[in-house]
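Supplementary Note 3. Input sequence used for the single-chain structure prediction.
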Amino acid sequence: MRARDIRRRESGDLEQEVKRLREDIFTKRFHGHNEDKGDRGAIRRGRRDMARILTVLGERTRAATPAVRGEAR
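The predicted structure, written as C-alpha cells, is reproduced below.
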C-alpha cells in the first residue's frame, strides 16, 4: 500500500484498516509459532502498512488543529 493511495482514502476507512491490520498481525504472529511459516514477510508488510496509515492520520489531525506558537513559555 502506497502513501499516495492512503491519502486518497477517508479517515474513518483508514481507522478501520488499522484495526484490521492489528488483528491480522496478531493472528499471524501466533500462527508463525504454531504452524508452518508460509509468508514470512507478511508481518513486516502489515506493520509497515499500519505505520504508513498512522502517519497519514497523524498528519491529518495536526493539520486540523490550529498551531499555537509562543504559548509554551
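The longest helix spans residues 11-34. The chain has one domain: 3-64.
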